[in-house]
């Protein structure tokens, strides 16, 4: 879009409003797609890089983002929400100043409902809900990144306009903790010290909310994004209702648009309270579900499949397509991580098994079996379309943190610049068995994380494999862990050996031991027996 086109796209209600005119111009759908798209660096020549380098290239897919229709819709709605919220706070018409006067009055009276001036309210809100791993947080972050977060104004007065702020709903602490998170994020973005100023002195919910609302007004906050809203399900008492009522107050009273993001478990929670926010139904809420196996899914997989760092490029056939969907059930985050881990697995197998670096359905299944144990219950519930089971899995993720650990292990295991551990017998991977060499790296890493010395780990590994060479990684860890938990046998104290009569008979005549022993049947003490035999003299009489 040229500058003249951008000027024509400015609507009358957006003109002469410094908060809106400072924003980027309205983008077409094509421009929005290009801005959201995040492609990794890729050069086919990198397929010839050393084995210990290519896994680091594969890690670039962590930042891969290919916008789909739902992502474009989200970006469009955010742009509308942001601009509509500023219409009723136009500093050129005095609306922003009147909002500030009302905010000061609320601070003085301690009542969020207090206002001195009647001001227009154009703020709206909506909720973005969906399955874990579907890409909600990533999509909103890509959308937010297209807007400058802080815009400095020097006319008609000095002001740092805060376009958006994203905070996470607290798992504990309720509304006060949400406000503290808000203060801390403001300090991070603006370089202020609100957390020091208000954090320790904010002891009541009412005071915390008043201060948060006041700061939102002062800095002309465009949109407040509250992520992980399902955490409210864990709060006790009135905390959950207090937070939702406060978010509604921000929209209806302070005129700050709010976007609530969470899993599908939060639907019932938001339906009761958050829908009361002004004009919430006007812009609508978004429910993102896992993708069906349709043309959109196929398009996404086709584009992703181009980024291969294996020696040989594997064409995407129908068997691979089917296996990718069975393993991921249309969850974007899962299929991307599966594609990455499968490439790392293929690179490792070429080194230790002399196999070709080819991506096959059986390889994908092996990766799922080895590395996706954490999310397999959720994936299985998706396959069975078990809604009741899925409702229990909002805590199964963050999947990203789990898979980062997996990748850390995979990159370490592929670092072939280090001396390889002593080779142990391996089984045939092509026949579906887990090779011993494949599991040693992960077991060593697990045992090392427990603080075991490498030489101790090697001894225990060899003992376990000597007893059963077919053990996989999980079984090896269990066997070694069992040995570590086994009680240590302490040697029993040696008891004094009783002297046999045969041994006594062998003592020579006059032996002190024999004299004492023979005196015992007569009731003599050791001293009396020795005195009677003349072995000791009589003690001198006392003077």
Structural commentary:
There is one protein chain. This protein has 26 helices and 7 strands. The relative contact order is 0.08. Strands 4-5-6-1-7 form a 5-stranded parallel β-sheet, with helices on both faces. It has a two-stranded antiparallel sheet with strand order 2-3. The N and C termini lie far apart (128 Å). A hairpin with a 5-residue loop joins strand 2 and strand 3 (159-162). The chain is 50% helix and 6% strand. With 543 residues, it is an alpha/beta fold. The protein has helices at residues 3-8, 18-21, 29-36, 54-58, 69-87, 95-109, 136-144, 174-190, 194-199, 205-218, 239-252, 267-273, 280-283, 295-304, 318-328, 332-353, 361-371, 376-384, 387-390, 399-413, 436-449, 454-467, 473-485, 501-505, 512-519, 526-532, and strands spanning 125-130, 150-153, 159-162, 164-168, 223-227, 258-263, 286-288.
Descriptive tags:
alpha/beta, two-stranded antiparallel sheet, 26 helices, flat, 543 residues, disordered N terminus
Q: What structural category arises from helix and sheet content?
A: alpha/beta
The N- and C-terminal alpha carbons lie at a distance of 128 Å
Helicity, as a percent range: 40-55%
Quote the beta fraction.
Answer: 5-15%
- Oligomeric nature of the chains: single chain
Q: Can you list the strand order of the major beta sheet?
A: 4-5-6-1-7
How many strand elements?
7
Low-pLDDT residue intervals, each spanning 5 or more residues: 1-8, 278-282, 395-403, 415-438
Query: In one word, what is the shape?
Result: flat
Main sheet attributes: strand count, strand direction, barrel closure: 5 strands, parallel
> In DSSP terms, counting alpha (H) and pi (I) runs of 4 or more, how many helices?
26
Radius of gyration: 37 Å
| Overall average residue pLDDT | 78
């Amino acid at each position: 879009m040229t500058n003249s086109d951008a000027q024509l796209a400015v609507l009358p209600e957006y003109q002469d409003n410094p908060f809106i005119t400072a924003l980027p111009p309205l983008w077409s759908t094509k421009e929005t797609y290009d801005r959201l798209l995040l492609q990794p660096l890729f050069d086919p020549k990198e397929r010839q890089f050393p084995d210990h380098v290519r896994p680091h290239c594969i890690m670039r897919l962590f930042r891969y983002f290919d916008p789909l229709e739902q992502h474009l819709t989200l970006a469009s709605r955010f742009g509308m929400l942001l601009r509509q919220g500023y219409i009723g706070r136009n500093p050129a018409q005095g609306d922003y100043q009147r909002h500030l006067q009302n905010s000061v009055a609320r601070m003085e009276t301690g009542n969020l409902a207090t206002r001195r001036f009647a001001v227009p309210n154009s703020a709206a809100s909506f909720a973005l809900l969906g399955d874990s791993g579907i890409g909600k947080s990533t999509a909103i972050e890509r959308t937010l990144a297209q807007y400058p977060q802080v815009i400095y104004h020097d006319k008609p007065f000095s002001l740092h306009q805060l376009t958006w702020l994203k905070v996470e709903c607290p798992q504990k602490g309720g509304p006060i903790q949400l406000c503290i998170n808000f203060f801390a994020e403001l300090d991070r973005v603006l370089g202020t010290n609100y957390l020091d100023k208000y954090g320790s002195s904010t002891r009541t919910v009412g005071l915390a909310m008043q201060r948060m609302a006041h700061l939102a007004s002062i800095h002309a906050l465009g949109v407040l994004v509250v992520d992980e809203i399902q955490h409210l399900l864990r709060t006790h008492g009135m905390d959950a209702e207090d937070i939702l009522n406060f978010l509604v107050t921000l929209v209806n009273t302070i005129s700050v648009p709010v976007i609530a993001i969470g899993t599908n478990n939060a639907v019932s929670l938001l339906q009761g309270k958050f829908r009361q926010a002004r004009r919430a139904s006007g812009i609508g809420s978004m429910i993102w579900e896992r993708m069906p196996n349709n043309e959109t899914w196929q398009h996404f997989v086709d584009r992703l499949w181009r980024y291969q760092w294996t020696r040989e490029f594997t064409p995407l056939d129908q068997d691979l397509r089917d296996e990718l969907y069975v393993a991921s059930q249309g969850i974007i985050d899962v299929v991307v991580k599966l594609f990455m881990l499968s490439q790392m697995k293929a690179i490792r197998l070429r080194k230790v098994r002399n196999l070709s670096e080819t991506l096959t359905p059986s390889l994908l299944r092996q990766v799922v079996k080895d590395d996706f144990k954490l999310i397999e219950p959720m994936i299985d519930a998706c396959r069975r379309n078990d809604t009741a089971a899925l409702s229990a899995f909002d805590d199964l993720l963050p999947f990203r943190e789990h898979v980062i650990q997996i990748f850390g292990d995979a990159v370490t295991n592929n670092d072939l610049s280090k001396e390889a551990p002593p080779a142990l017998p391996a089984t045939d991977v092509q026949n579906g068995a887990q090779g011993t060499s494949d599991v040693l790296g992960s077991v060593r890493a697990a045992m090392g994380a427990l603080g075991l010395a490498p030489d101790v780990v090697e001894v225990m590994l060899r003992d376990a494999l000597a007893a059963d060479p077919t053990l996989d990684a999980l079984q090896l860890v269990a066997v070694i862990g069992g040995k570590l938990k086994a009680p240590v046998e302490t040697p029993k104290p040696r008891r004094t050996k009783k002297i046999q009569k045969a041994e006594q008979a062998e003592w020579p005549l006059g032996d002190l031991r024999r004299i004492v022993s023979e005196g015992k049947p007569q009731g003599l003490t050791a001293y009396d027996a020795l005195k009677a035999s003349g072995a000791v003299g009589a003690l001198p009489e006392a003077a």
